[in-house]
């Protein structure tokens, strides 16, 4: 029986120690265990219980910690007494930011032992569960087992039986104890191989590993890769590429390039290179003038083994040389020369003895996506706002605006939900609770008697009309992205057909969506903990498959962080198994761990915090997180300066320069970006109220009429920026971003390089005043030796000559708040020409 230690939520407000008891056998030895849990911001639960034991270990405990701690530090002393373990809590104030750490140490209860200062710390971000299992110090025949601890990520607390079955039987020998080569730290790898990395078709994937073994043998290792096996099909064979050593000891590298979209696998294999070891040692013995007559015979034996594993010419050649090494009619010098031949060594290496080869325990995965998964420009519009005055717009009306979108250079057109909108609890203009006659409601309140997620709003047209619109966009090189919002209006057919799919209130009515204090009376969320979850999952999968069957390959998913993560992991994997070209954009403005968790589980691109990163320090720090950490392996940002939900404070003015600053930053910092238009290019800037980030007269709740021919429209500058993006491959990726030092906090400078294409972007972050700064460039090949090079401002058309690493740049936001310089090769001198002698 296990006693449950009271929730930590109760400890922060009580000064007196509290205790709880969990029963454990009285025969356990009497060491004490101290568990320190530093936590914030929600209550956590800690449960103490006996841990696994074996013949050598006579005592053990384990503590289960669950997320949600208060801002308190709790120290627990768990010490065995006759038949029970008492846990004493002492609370003190200690705050960390959305993380917690456990520090565990074993100390004697009665008899002092020396050196008992073994500790383990485990730190993780976000909400999580952790199991800390300890086998305490034991004494058996004058030796004691080291203190052991492990932290494992859990989805639910394990049962006692499961916990015992996961423990290691130290008396059992390994299946094969002669595998001497160790493989560690294979990179890239996400969370120990739990999730796949992401790449684009044609990318070269560099893989590294730490490979070592006892002794001094020469090691050989290979990178193995293949397309992921499909259920019901034979497993594809592994392709093997040698891993090459690097100057760093024990580190080996290789690369591969997947040639199809979809899921691929890779791992590392390593073994003792016996002939390579023989050849190295033979050379040393010869140089030391030692007798190697017997060693030559060892080499012959190795070659005979390689010949048996080889086929064709290699088999014949290896067998022939092995025989010649045993031929005593040849001089020893001749046989040594044969044995040391580099070609022979390469032939032997092609057919190694892998009977005792080691394989990295994990098979790692990589999702290979199309190019637009990394490089795309998105434009959002509401089709219903493009009809004639006084009429709801149609797909045909929106089709007439496709050239407008294409001329600005956008290649993905994102439509808010196009489905029937419910009447019950329909929202009025500006999100009012009572809709007046003629109010069109929010497109995110999906479902009406006309249908749900696989129907289109009757005022927009029919499915055939949508197909024509979709095909017209394709002809212009535009992919249409649909907004999939997994929620339902009270009038959605599923609300009545499947009531258990929706959460219920105490009075039996369906619960509407809430994010207190916000309420969404026109929307019901799905209940992902329903007993009918398999049917729910399959029905939601059917929504995506319906639109994929009509040609849609881009999906923007609304608020995925409010739906179950296991669902997304399953859904995206099964969809991309059949349609690897599909792109999922996650619209999740939430905690970092949750945003990253969605990306790990398959979302191709993700919205970001860029919308709120304004200052120089904020931008540089955030971009470092996105491009210089392991996040780059799985998280593809999509920068949006505005959305229908978000009018950020820095855009709540009429200065065109404020909008242009955010345009240039979004389009050049991130390889994928988007905007909500025509609100952006027409500089909509009025908030619903002071201090709000919502648009006044929001298009989410009413039809808008946009004057696309306004002379002050930012359309020309947007077109120019998108043309720059298309003409310069340096902007098509994020991992090449570098920031340059400037001596002004209001001047931001950074660059991207791809091959011979180098761009330098300098932005005045102040939309009102002129600012200049010294920009310190570090561009090998351009800034070397202080020689001059030309920079062409692709926004203004002006050309300048920069010299060396330090150059002055001054920007007036009234003309253009940024410069996008294309840096050209070094200016030539007379001695650069071939006729100079």
TrEMBL record:
<dbReference type="InterPro" id="IPR013783">
    <property type="entry name" value="Ig-like_fold"/>
</dbReference>
<dbReference type="InterPro" id="IPR013780">
    <property type="entry name" value="Glyco_hydro_b"/>
</dbReference>
<feature type="compositionally biased region" description="Polar residues">
    <location>
        <begin position="82"/>
        <end position="106"/>
    </location>
</feature>
<comment type="similarity">
    <text>Belongs to the glycosyl hydrolase 13 family. GlgE subfamily.</text>
</comment>
<keyword id="KW-0119">Carbohydrate metabolism</keyword>
<feature type="compositionally biased region" description="Basic and acidic residues">
    <location>
        <begin position="161"/>
        <end position="173"/>
    </location>
</feature>
<feature type="binding site">
    <location>
        <begin position="700"/>
        <end position="701"/>
    </location>
    <ligand>
        <name>alpha-maltose 1-phosphate</name>
    </ligand>
</feature>
<feature type="active site" description="Proton donor">
    <location>
        <position position="587"/>
    </location>
</feature>
<comment type="function">
    <text>Maltosyltransferase that uses maltose 1-phosphate (M1P) as the sugar donor to elongate linear or branched alpha-(1-&gt;4)-glucans. Is involved in a branched alpha-glucan biosynthetic pathway from trehalose, together with TreS, Mak and GlgB.</text>
</comment>
<dbReference type="Pfam" id="PF11896">
    <property type="entry name" value="GlgE_dom_N_S"/>
</dbReference>
<dbReference type="InterPro" id="IPR026585">
    <property type="entry name" value="GlgE"/>
</dbReference>
<keyword id="KW-0808">Transferase</keyword>
<feature type="site" description="Transition state stabilizer">
    <location>
        <position position="645"/>
    </location>
</feature>
<feature type="compositionally biased region" description="Polar residues">
    <location>
        <begin position="8"/>
        <end position="27"/>
    </location>
</feature>
<dbReference type="GO" id="GO:0004553">
    <property type="term" value="F:hydrolase activity, hydrolyzing O-glycosyl compounds"/>
</dbReference>
<dbReference type="InterPro" id="IPR021828">
    <property type="entry name" value="GlgE_dom_N/S"/>
</dbReference>
<dbReference type="GO" id="GO:0016758">
    <property type="term" value="F:hexosyltransferase activity"/>
</dbReference>
<feature type="binding site">
    <location>
        <position position="427"/>
    </location>
    <ligand>
        <name>alpha-maltose 1-phosphate</name>
    </ligand>
</feature>
<feature type="active site" description="Nucleophile">
    <location>
        <position position="558"/>
    </location>
</feature>
<feature type="binding site">
    <location>
        <position position="487"/>
    </location>
    <ligand>
        <name>alpha-maltose 1-phosphate</name>
    </ligand>
</feature>
<dbReference type="InterPro" id="IPR017853">
    <property type="entry name" value="GH"/>
</dbReference>
<dbReference type="InterPro" id="IPR049171">
    <property type="entry name" value="GLGE_C"/>
</dbReference>
<feature type="binding site">
    <location>
        <position position="559"/>
    </location>
    <ligand>
        <name>alpha-maltose 1-phosphate</name>
    </ligand>
</feature>
<feature type="region of interest" description="Disordered">
    <location>
        <begin position="153"/>
        <end position="173"/>
    </location>
</feature>
<protein>
    <recommendedName>
        <fullName>Alpha-1,4-glucan:maltose-1-phosphate maltosyltransferase</fullName>
        <ecNumber>2.4.99.16</ecNumber>
    </recommendedName>
</protein>
<dbReference type="GO" id="GO:0030979">
    <property type="term" value="P:alpha-glucan biosynthetic process"/>
</dbReference>
<dbReference type="InterPro" id="IPR006047">
    <property type="entry name" value="GH13_cat_dom"/>
</dbReference>
<feature type="binding site">
    <location>
        <position position="522"/>
    </location>
    <ligand>
        <name>alpha-maltose 1-phosphate</name>
    </ligand>
</feature>
<keyword id="KW-0328">Glycosyltransferase</keyword>
<feature type="region of interest" description="Disordered">
    <location>
        <begin position="43"/>
        <end position="112"/>
    </location>
</feature>
<dbReference type="Pfam" id="PF21702">
    <property type="entry name" value="GLGE_C"/>
</dbReference>
<feature type="domain" description="Glycosyl hydrolase family 13 catalytic">
    <location>
        <begin position="380"/>
        <end position="725"/>
    </location>
</feature>
<feature type="region of interest" description="Disordered">
    <location>
        <begin position="1"/>
        <end position="27"/>
    </location>
</feature>
<comment type="subunit">
    <text>Homodimer.</text>
</comment>
């Amino acid at each position: 029986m296990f006693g449950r230690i009271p929730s930590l939520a109760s400890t922060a407000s009580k000064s007196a120690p509290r205790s709880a008891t969990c029963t454990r056998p009285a025969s356990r030895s009497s060491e004490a265990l101290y568990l320190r849990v530093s936590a914030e911001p929600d209550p956590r639960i800690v449960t103490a219980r006996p841990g696994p034991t074996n013949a050598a270990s006579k005592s053990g405990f384990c503590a289960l910690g669950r997320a949600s701690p208060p801002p308190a530090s709790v120290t627990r002393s768990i010490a065995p007494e006759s038949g029970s373990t008492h846990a004493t809590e002492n609370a003190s104030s200690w705050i960390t930011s959305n993380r917690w750490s456990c520090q565990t140490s074993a100390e004697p209860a009665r008899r002092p032992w020396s050196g008992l200062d073994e500790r383990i710390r485990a730190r993780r971000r976000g909400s999580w569960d952790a199991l800390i299992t300890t086998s305490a110090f034991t004494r058996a025949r004058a030796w004691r087992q080291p203190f052991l601890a492990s932290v494992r990520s859990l989805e639910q607390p394990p049962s006692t039986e499961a916990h015992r079955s996961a423990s290691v039987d130290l008396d059992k020998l390994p299946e094969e104890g002669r595998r001497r080569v160790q493989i560690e730290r294979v990179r890239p790898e996400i969370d120990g191989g739990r999730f796949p990395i992401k790449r684009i078709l044609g990318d070269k994937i560099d893989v590294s590993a730490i490979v070592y073994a006892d002794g001094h043998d020469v090691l050989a290792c290979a990178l193995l890769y293949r397309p992921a096996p499909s259920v019901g099909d034979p497993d594809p064979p592994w392709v093997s590429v040698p891993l090459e050593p690097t100057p760093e000891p024990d580190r080996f590298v290789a690369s591969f390039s997947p040639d199809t979209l979809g899921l691929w696998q890779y791992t590392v294999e390593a073994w003792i290179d016996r002939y390579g070891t023989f050849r190295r040692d033979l050379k040393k013995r010869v140089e030391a003038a030692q007798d190697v007559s017997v060693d030559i015979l060892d080499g012959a034996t190795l070659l005979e083994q390689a010949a048996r594993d080889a086929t064709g010419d290699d088999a014949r050649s290896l067998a022939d040389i092995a025989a010649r090494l045993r031929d005593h009619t040849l001089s020893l010098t001749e046989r040594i020369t044969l044995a040391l031949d580099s070609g022979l060594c390469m032939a032997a290496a092609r057919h190694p003895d892998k009977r005792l080869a080691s394989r990295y325990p994990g098979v790692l995965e990589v999702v290979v996506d199309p190019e637009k998964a990394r490089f795309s420009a998105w434009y959002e519009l509401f089709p219903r706002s493009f009809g004639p005055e006084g009429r709801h717009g149609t797909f045909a009306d929106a089709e007439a605006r496709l050239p407008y979108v294409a001329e600005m250079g956008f290649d993905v057109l994102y439509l808010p939900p196009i489905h029937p909108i419910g009447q019950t609890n329909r929202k009025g203009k500006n999100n009012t609770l009572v809709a007046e006659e003629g109010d069109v409601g929010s497109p995110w309140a999906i479902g009406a008697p006309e249908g749900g997620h696989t129907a289109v709003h009757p005022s927009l047209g029919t499915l055939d009309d949508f197909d024509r619109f979709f095909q017209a966009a394709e002809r212009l090189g535009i992919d249409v992205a649909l907004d999939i919002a997994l929620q339902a209006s009270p009038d959605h057919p599923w609300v009545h057909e499947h009531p258990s799919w929706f959460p219920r209130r105490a009075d039996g009515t369906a619960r509407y969506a809430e994010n207190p204090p916000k309420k969404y009376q026109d929307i019901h969320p799905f209940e992902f903990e329903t007993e009918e979850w398999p049917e729910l999952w399959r029905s939601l999968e059917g929504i995506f498959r319906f639109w994929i069957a009509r040609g849609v390959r881009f999906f923007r998913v609304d608020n995925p962080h409010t739906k179950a993560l296991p669902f997304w992991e399953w859904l995206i994997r099964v969809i991309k198994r059949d349609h690897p070209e599909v792109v999922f954009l996650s619209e999740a403005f939430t905690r970092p761990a949750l945003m990253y968790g969605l990306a790990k589980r398959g979302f191709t691109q993700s919205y970001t915090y860029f919308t709120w990163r304004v200052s120089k320090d904020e931008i540089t720090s955030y971009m470092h997180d996105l491009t210089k950490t392991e996040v780059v392996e799985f998280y593809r940002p999509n920068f949006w300066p505005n959305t229908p939900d978000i009018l950020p404070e820095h855009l709540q003015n009429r200065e065109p320069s404020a909008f242009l600053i955010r345009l240039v930053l979004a389009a050049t910092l991130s390889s994928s970006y988007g905007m909500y238009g025509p609100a952006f290019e027409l500089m909509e800037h009025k908030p619903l109220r002071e201090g709000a980030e919502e648009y006044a007269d929001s298009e989410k709740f009413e039809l808008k009429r946009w004057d696309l021919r306004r002379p002050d429209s930012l359309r020309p500058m947007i077109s120019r920026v998108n043309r720059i993006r298309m003409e310069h491959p340096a902007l098509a990726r994020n991992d090449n971003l570098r920031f340059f030092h400037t001596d002004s906090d209001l001047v931001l400078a950074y660059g991207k390089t791809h091959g011979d294409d180098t761009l330098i972007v300098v932005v005045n972050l102040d939309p009102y005043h002129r600012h200049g700064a010294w920009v310190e460039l570090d561009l090998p090949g351009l800034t070397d030796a202080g020689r001059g090079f030309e920079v062409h401002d692709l926004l203004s058309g002006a050309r300048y000559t920069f010299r060396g690493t330090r150059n002055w740049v001054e920007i007036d936001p009234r003309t253009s708040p940024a410069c996008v310089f294309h840096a050209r090769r070094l200016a030539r001198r007379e001695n650069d020409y071939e006729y100079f002698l």
